[in-house]
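RECORD TYPE: protein structure
NAME: RND transporter
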Amino acid sequence: MMIPPRPNRGILGGPVARLVGAGLLAGLLGGCAVGPDYQAPKLQLPGSWGATKTSLIANGSEPDNRPPDLARWWERLNDKTLNGLVEAAVAGNLDVATAKARVRQARATRRQALAALAPVVTGNGAYTRSDNGSNVSAGSGDITVAGPFDSFQLGLDASWELDLFGENRRAAEAATYGLDASEETLRNTLLTLVGDVTTYYVEARGYQARIALARRTAASQRETASLTRTKLEAGSASAVDVSNAEGLAASTEADIPNLESSYQQTVNQLSILLGQPPSTLNDLMKRSAPIPSPRQPVPRGVPANVLLSRPDVRLAERQLAQSTAQIGQAEAARYPDISLVGDVSTSSTKLGDLAKSSSISWSFGPSLSVPIFNAGQLKAAVDYAQAYRDESFLAYRAAVLTALQDVENASVALHFERRRSRSLASSASSYRKATTLARTLYQSGSTSFLDVLDAERSLYSAEDSYLQSQVAITTDYILLNKALGGGWTGQVDTRTPEVNDEMGPRFVKGDWAKEFIVSNRQ
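PREDICTED:
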């Protein structure tokens, strides 16, 4: 922005004329603020996703370019326990509480910045009792000519910075963008939280399914080992067959402790995400449930949607806007500051006389502050702000590219994992038939025991891989919704403090979460 020329102060005659001139100048420059005005950058984005041919729609139809419906996307997994855990996590998670506190900080910072645009009025008062030492003696007695006296004083000081070049306005603008950024940080925290809760819950159900599979398989293999021992006693099997059968069952049983350990660690992490002690969810989660599975595809829309829906992208854009405003703030510091200051005071020897029989004094006039020499410090501050703005711009571009990459990767992963899962299901079905046939043939003496062992080992591996693939499909579904910007869309209270200075920390939200957990133990 071009700065208007400074007025020729020589043509302003006296103090009154100078004051009027300052007021006129303030009016002329009231809308002027140095530095660049922020405009959202226009980035070249692809018109469609690169993974079009490998869209999420498994039936091979054309990809759905409608804007994605991301509201409460986790409910499409049709798991009421999961839905309740998400609600409890939003209410009790400590990272969310921290992000809400930062929103309150940013809101207060903005109020401070806006207050700098308004006049400042300060009241003062004083009371003194003094004696000037004027008591004198006359003859045989003391004659009091003057004694201790009281003095009361009240005053009012006012000042108003005219902000001719917009330093305070740019600061308020930057603080506003900073508040926007803190709100986007909260949204991003909620997005991450919902995704983490859903992911850990799915993993926990996956571990439960794998533990149940390992136990069923081990029990079946123990039956095979018992049958083999019976055949050994009958002379139709060897001790090697018995040892192999028992070894295979023991190997399968050895997987169970590792799976149980992973399950418990996952449940512990879920409890922490709810802001609760690690063992809180043990009773709620001990009843097994199916692995949640998505039933419908996710419309991805077009790449430009990520600029509107991804909170991390919107956060980077708000930070870019804030850094742009800070350039003007630094630039304005290089120009003169003009303030209007005034004060009025009244004093008397009696408190009741302050408003009537008192001496009143007042003063009013402008003050000017002009930076003359600072060894380039202020110019360096501008250079720093400009370089920081460039860094913010690059961070914004990187956030956009990362968002596009996340969507592409999650889309491809989900598509190919579904293909893999279909192959694993077919594999498990074939090995199940092979195992049944091998056992039948072995019992009739038509095949060797090694065929039974290979069939049982292959069946267990195929079924376990299929369960892991089911977990991976839902995890990729979660990642895709996160990549598209799906998070919490409900109301979040950002105004209530977490700590009451009189009563200490609040535990209402944590208690609510615990009540939900207890109610679901039934």
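COMMENT: Residues 1-29, 54-61 have pLDDT under 50 and may be disordered.
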